[in-house]
Specification:
The complex is a heterohexamer, with 2 copies of chain A (119 residues), 2 copies of chain B (98 residues) and 2 copies of chain C (123 residues). The longest helix of chain B is centred in the C-terminal third of the chain and has 10 residues. Chain B has 98 residues and is α/β, with parallel strands linked by helices. Chain B is built from 4 helices and 5 strands, in the order βαβαβαβαβ. Chain C has a single domain, classed as DsrEFH-like (Hypothetical Protein Ychn, Chain: A). Chain C has a 5-stranded parallel β-sheet. The chains are: A alpha/beta (119), B alpha/beta (98), C alpha/beta (123).
C-alpha cells in the first residue's frame, strides 16, 4: 500500500516526528511504500543540517536522512513554511528537498493513505 | 474510519472532540493520549463508554515509556508501530485529532 | 499519475486564529488544493469556529488579519464550508457572527460527513 | 500574585488549573485565553465566579484581533501592553500558566 | 551583582514527559539553578505528576529515559518537591507510584506556597 | 524596574514571541529596564538569521535585532536548546548571543520581575 506522511512539528519539542519516524520504519518493514513525507508548519525544522543533539540522544534529522537514503524516500519541506522559519538550501540536511504545498496535495491524491503527525 | 488522538485527555480537548463527533470505527491512542486508557484516570470512563461503539487501541511503546503498561484498562488492545501501520491500512480513512 | 483522480479532501479546523499559526497555514493548503480540482470540504469545529468570526482587527497585535481570505474562497470554487452547531453554542456564537455563508450541522451529521471522505487533514 | 493565562479555556486545562490553585491576586488573560471572558463562552461563568476572589484583566489587543471586543463580560478590565507591564510591576510575583 | 542574593525559585511542572520536551528541559534549568545557591522548589501538578511515575521504559519510543535524574536531585541539594493531591487523584496515582519522596499537598496549600515565591517558572 | 523575559516558543508557530516583543516595547517605553531576554526550548528559533517571512508579514527575528540595537538589549539563546534545534553562530541573527542556562537563572536573580511567554 502507498502511504503519505505529513509532519507538523519540529524535532525534540514534540514527540510527533519521533512517532512519524517509527511509523515509517514499521511501514517499510512490512513492505509498504512511503510515497512522500511532507514537512509543514514547524515540521520544516526537522530538515536543519545544523542540529547537534547531545551524544546520548537520538539524532532526529540524521535518522530521517539515513532512512531516506536507504529507502529512496521523498522528503519534502514546504517552501513557504521553511522561509518563515529559516530553513533554506544552505542549511538543508541530505535527503530533503524544498518544494511547494502542491506536493502535499499531490501526495494526498496519489497515496492510498495520508497520515498526519502533529500537535 | 480510524481516529488517532495523541493528546492527554486532562490537558486538551482533542479526545473529547473526537468522541463527540466520531461515528464508530476505531480509536488509536498514541503519545500523551495513552493516559486516557489507564485505570484511575478521570478520562478512563469516557474510553469505557466509547468502547460500546468503537474498537479502542493504544500504542504500547508509549504506555511503556510512561510507566503505565500495567494500568491499561480492560478491553483496550495494545499495539506496536507495526499494529499502527496495520490499522491505517485496514481503515480507508484516518484522522489525527491534533 | 494523479491525472483525473478526484478525491474528497476534508480540512478540519479546530484551532483559534492568531494564538497559533495553524489556521493561517491550513488556509494556505486549502488554496493550493483548489488548483488540483479536488472535491474540497472545510470543517470548522471547536475553537476553529473563531476563525470565521466577523470584525477581526489585528493591528494591535501587529499581525496580519487573514480572515478576509475566507470570503475569497468561493472564487477558488471552494464552497463547502461546514460548522458544528455544538461548537458554536459552547462559544456563544451564531451563524450571524460568521463572515461567510456556511452549513451548520450537528456533531452526528459532522461525524457522518467525515466518514464519506478520502483524505482528512486536521489542523 | 499575578496569574497569566494564554490558552483557550475550551481547548486546554491551563485556566482551570490556575483557578483551582490561585489564592486571590489578579488574573490576566492574553492571546487565546481572552475568549474565556466573552459572553456566551462556556468558560465565562468560571471567570465570573473567579471575580469574587481576584481582579480579572484581559489584553485588549488580543480581544480586538479575535473580533470579540464587544462581548467582554462585565467586571473584567481590558488593558493594553502598557497595562500588562503595569500589572507585572504591581505584583511582586507572577506566573504564566503555560 | 547577584553575589549573596538568595531568591525563592519555584519550577512548576504541568506537562507529561516525552509527548513534549518541556519536562526534560525544565529539569535542565533546575540542575543549573543548584549551582547558584538559590532556594529552589519543584512543583508537580496536572500531567506533570506523570514525570515522577515509576517504571518508565523508553526503549520502544527510542527516546532517553530521564526519570532517574529526579532521584539524583537531592545530590544537588534540591529537596523541596511538592505534588498536588488533586492532580494525583484525577490520574489514579498515589505517593507509592512516584520514584522520589515528595510532599503531597492540597490545591489550596499549593496556591499559598506559590504566593511566597520570588520567581515562578512554569513549564 | 528591571525585567527579565523568558521566551519558550519559536516565531510564527505561536503568538508567544509576538506578545513578548510588544510587552518589551511597552516596558521600555515606560522607562523600565529589560535586563535580559532569554530564549529557551523552541524559543531559540527566534534567533535564526535565515528566516524570510512574506513581505506583508512582520519580520519577527529582525524586529528583535532592531530592538536590541536601539535599547542595548541582551538577547541570550540557550546553547543546549539551540544545538538540538540547529541554531549556531553561523545562522545567528545580529544582536543575539549564545550562552548557557545559567544566564536564565542569573537573570531571575538580578531582575525585579521575570515574565515567561510560551505555549
Amino acid at each position: 500500500m502507498k502511504f503519505a506522511i505529513l509532519i507538523n512539528e519540529g524535532p525534540y519539542q514534540h514527540q510527533a516526528t519521533d512517532t512519524a519516524f517509527l511509523f515509517c520504519k514499521a511501514a517499510l518493514a512490512k513492505g509498504h511504500e512511503i510515497r512522500r513525507v511532507f514537512f509543514y508548519h514547524d515540521g520544516v525544522n526537522n530538515s536543519s543540517s545544523l542540529t547537534e543533539p547531545p551524544q546520548d540522544d537520538r539524532n532526529i534529522v540524521q535518522r530521517w536522512s539515513k532512512l531516506a537514503e536507504e529507502h529512496k524516500l521523498d522528503l519534502v519541506v514546504c517552501v513557504a513554511a521553511a522561509l518563515r522559519r529559516g530553513i533554506k538550501d544552505e542549511n538543508l540536511a541530505p535527503g530533503f528537498r524544498i518544494s511547494g504545498l502542491g506536493q502535499l496535495v499531490e501526495a494526498g491524491i496519489e497515496a492510498d493513505r495520508l497520515v498526519t503527525f502533529g500537535d | 474510519m480510524l481516529h488517532i488522538v495523541n493528546k492527554s485527555p486532562l490537558e486538551r480537548n482533542a479526545l473529547e472532540s473526537c468522541l463527540r463527533v466520531a461515528q464508530g470505527g476505531a480509536l488509536l491512542l498514541t503519545e500523551d493520549a495513552v493516559y486516557a486508557a489507564t485505570r484511575g484516570n478521570a478520562a478512563a470512563e469516557k474510553i469505557t463508554a466509547a468502547m460500546a461503539g468503537m474498537k479502542v487501541y493504544v500504542l504500547g511503546p508509549d504506555l511503556d515509556a510512561r510507566g503505565m503498561t500495567d494500568r491499561l484498562i480492560e478491553g483496550v488492545t495494545s499495539v506496536g508501530y507495526d499494529g499502527f501501520v496495520d490499522l491505517v491500512a485496514e481503515y480507508p480513512t484516518n484522522q489525527s485529532w491534533l | 499519475m494523479s491525472e483525473g483522480t478526484v478525491k474528497k479532501f476534508m480540512f478540519v479546523n479546530r484551532k483559534a486564529p492568531y494564538g497559533t499559526i495553524y489556521a493561517l497555514e491550513s488556509l494556505e493548503v486549502v488554496l493550493i488544493s483548489a488548483a488540483f480540482d479536488q472535491d474540497v470540504s472545510l470543517v470548522f469545529m471547536d475553537d476553529g469556529v473563531f476563525q470565521l468570526k466577523k470584525g477581526q482587527q489585528t493591528k494591535g497585535i501587529e499581525n496580519k488579519n487573514f480572515s478576509p481570505t475566507y470570503r475569497a474562497l468561493d472564487g477558488y470554487d471552494i464552497e463547502k464550508l461546514y460548522v458544528e452547531q455544538e461548537s458554536l453554542d459552547a462559544r456563544g456564537l451564531t451563524e450571524d457572527d460568521l463572515l461567510v455563508d456556511v452549513t451548520v450541522m450537528s456533531k452526528a451529521e459532522m461525524g457522518k460527513l467525515m466518514e464519506t471522505m478520502d483524505v482528512v487533514l486536521s489542523f
